[in-house]
Amino acid sequence: MKDYSYILNTIEEGKDRILEAERYIWKHPEPGYREWNTHAYLKKQYEALSLTLTEFGNIPGFYTDLDTGRPGPCLAIFGEMDSLIIPTHPECDPETGAVHACGHNCQSAALLGVAIGLSAPGALEGLSGKIRLIAVPAEELIELEFRQELKDKGIIRFFGGKQELMARGVLDDVDLSLIIHTSNKPGYGCPPGTNGCMIKQYIFKGLAAHAGASPHTGKNALYAANLGLSAANALRETFRDDDHVRFHPIITAGGSAVNSIPDCVMIEAYIRAATMPAIEHYNEILNRAFAAAAASIGCELTIKDLPGYAPRFNDPGMMRVMKGAAAEILPADQVVDDPAFGTGCSDMGDVSTVMPAIHPRLSGYSGHAHGNDLYITDPYMATVVSAKIQALSAARFLENDAAEARKIIKEKQVVYNSIAEYLEAVERLTFTAEAVSYEADGSISLHYKP
């Protein structure tokens, strides 16, 4: 097994620069498709390494290719740039509420560390193919109205950053890909896979009336929404355990005045599950429940379904190689197995539907994921060690004429045969309907599935 201590030592020598990037991005958080300051900061850092960048233009982010000069596969390594919005976090941006309670600041810093290590003179000697380092925007599915505005303007086609890069052709020549996510669990680990999700919006329309004097003349959209939520909760016991279903709605508009019957109530939600057929199945029965709830009060209902993220399946061959790389860097007791299927989501799932991909986790923060108590408590582990594991993994994939990468690609099991096939399938999930029709003869029709 070849010794790559030169690459690891180069990353170690650049640790001050890596840790400085982690702090800078933490202190300047930006949600998805708004990461222009982060983009500018990282661009300056990469250009200082004499790397040539391909920028995405009308959205933040860029990539750079490290070409070995020898034919072989293309390995992509991602670093996510976006933040969450949690106004109650003590260190959030006071104006926007943005904060990196997702740890993506560490991912961006770690990717810079990979660039430092693999762009050093002689670092790619003996490797075949190329490595594409991608600073990617918008992994967190938030600010949906803003993203819809971008879509309506033709700026983006998809809400998720990696989905958007797939649509833009950035991954057309990529054969396999990886990313390491910061975690509050000890050491390094990787589950076999995680859920996917669909984005949902229910808009209940009733009839306003005076809540005290004449409520009988109105149609209460809030009550209709509450009935829908109750019906969804009643359905939970029908969710199969093996499908790992999660349904979590929020009311984003619930009425405008306490003395007026609410005539417009909006619910946003995700439906998560372990497979796309399961997502579509549970989405249908939930839509039926909300449509029936609206009809029971005499309200109208608009259902809007948008593709979220596909379920992720971490490639077994990549898991083996990356676990081995982690074991070369970390003590044995810090490299663990994560046998449980994960119930979160990531647009890395979409990437995994078309190529071998892996999304392990590495310790680095304390508190709750996406919580107002999340802090980066081990930045060295979350950035410098992460960079070392990713760089060493890249070398292991592409050494010996990229033998490991070629084997993984040959044995891959993916959902779609091409990115074009994936894009076509995902866009079919978009669905908008006026879910309740009141007929002249007094009958009611429900429309809740494509």
Give a brief outline of the structure.
The chain has 450 residues and is α+β, with helices and mostly antiparallel strands. The protein has two domains: 5-194 and 311-415, Zn peptidases (Aminopeptidase), CATH 3.40.630; 196-308 and 427-446, Alpha-Beta Plaits (2-Layer Sandwich). The protein contains twelve helices and 22 strands.
Account of the 3D structure:
There is one protein chain. The protein is α+β, with helices and mostly antiparallel strands and 450 residues long. The protein folds into two domains: 5-194 and 311-415, Zn peptidases (Aminopeptidase, 3-Layer(aba) Sandwich), CATH 3.40.630.10; 196-308 and 427-446, Alpha-Beta Plaits (2-Layer Sandwich), CATH 3.30.70. It has twelve helices and 22 strands. The protein has helices at 5-13, 15-27, 36-47, 104-118, 144-152, 161-167, 221-235, 276-297, 316-329, 348-352, 379-410, 419-427, and strands spanning 54-55, 62-67, 74-80, 84-85, 98-99, 130-136, 176-178, 181-183, 188-189, 193-194, 196-205, 246-253, 264-273, 300-307, 312-313, 357-358, 361-363, 365-366, 375-376, 431-434, 436-438, 444-446. A six-stranded mixed beta sheet has the order 1-2-6-3-7-16, with helices on both faces. It has a five-stranded antiparallel beta sheet with strand order 12-13-11-14-20. It has a three-stranded mixed beta sheet with strand order 8-17-9. The longest helix is centred in the last third of the chain and has 32 residues, at 379-410. The mean pLDDT is 96.
List the helices and strands and how they pair.
Blueprint: H1 5-13, H2 15-27, H3 36-47, E1 54-55, E2 62-67, E3 74-80, E4 84-85, E5 98-99, H4 104-118, E6 130-136, H5 144-152, H6 161-167, E7 176-178, E8 181-183, E9 188-189, E10 193-194, E11 196-205, H7 221-235, E12 246-253, E13 264-273, H8 276-297, E14 300-307, E15 312-313, H9 316-329, H10 348-352, E16 357-358, E17 361-363, E18 365-366, E19 375-376, H11 379-410, H12 419-427, E20 431-434, E21 436-438, E22 444-446
Parallel strand pairs: 3-6, 3-7, 7-16, 8-17
Antiparallel strand pairs: 1-2, 2-6, 4-5, 9-17, 10-15, 11-13, 11-14, 12-13, 14-20, 18-19, 21-22
